[in-house]
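Researcher: Next sequence.
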Amino acid sequence: MLVTMSKYAYPEVLCETEWIAENLNNPNITILEVDYDPENAYKEGHVPGAHLVWWKRDINDPIRRDIIDKLQFEALMSRVGATHDTELILYGDFNNWFAAFAFWVFQYYGHKKIKIMNGGRKKWELERREYSKNDPSTSPTKYIAKPPEEGIRAYMPDVRRAIEKAEQTILVDVRSPKEFSGEITAPPEYPTEHAQRGGHIPGAKNIPWAQAVSETDGTFKSREELEALYGGKGVTPDKHIICYCRIGERSSHSWFVLNTFLVIHPFVTTMDHGLNGAT
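Model: Next structure:
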C-alpha cells in the first residue's frame, strides 16, 4: 500500500523504506530499531547500521512505573551517538507500535529531528530488503536533553477534568474492543501483560490504535481514511484529546497520528501511565 505522504498534514515525520535503502550510508541520519521482542526481531536481522532500542530497558524506567527520566534519556542518546542535529529514523516490530512510543518520549525530551519509517519491519521484510546481524559501530556523544515538554503528556488530574468537562475533551481508549469492554485485561498480542482491572474510563471512545495502519504492510492509512476513522467517533480538531491504553505505548501510536502529524488535531496528549497509572 503506497499512500501519497504529501496529503498528510506534516509528511516530513515519515520516510519510506525505499528512501532508507538509498540512504544507509548517509552520515546525517541515525537509524534506531525499537522493539518489543528484540530476540525475535533485531537480533534475527535488522536494517544495516540500525541501533537497538529495547522499549522495556531503554524507554521505560526499570523500577518506577514511568518512562525514563531526563538523565536516562541523555544516556540513551549519548550511547547511540546522537546530537541535537542528528536526524533519527525510528522503526520497529508490530507495525511501529513501540517506535511511535519512542517518538513520543524523544519529543517529550525535546529532540525534534525524528522520522518514522513507514511500515516498519513488516514492510521492509515484505520487500525483501537487506538485513544485517552486525552491531553498528558508533562514537558516543555527550547529549544534553531539553526540559520535558509537558504539553504532550496527560496526568491523572487532566483525566479527571476531562471526565467533568466531556463537552470539551475526548478520551480515546486505543486498546482492543475486548479490553475496552472488560472481557479481557491484557492485549491479545501479549496475553500475560494485564491491566490492574478491566473496563474503561467512563465516557471514553474506543478507537483501537491498529485501525490507523494497513493490515497488508503496516503503513499508515491515508489522511482521508484517518479523518473518517476518528471523526466518525466525534474526535474533531476543536476538542482536546487524551489518548490512553494500558501503560502508554499503544496510545503513543494514536498520538502520533493525531497530534498535528498525519492529521491536524492541535490539542492531543497521551496518558503515558495508561490505565495502570489510574488505578
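Model: The CA atoms of residues 34 and 99 lie 5 Å apart. The beta strands are 14-15, 29-35, 51-54, 87-92, 114-117, 169-173, 205-206, 240-244, 268-270.
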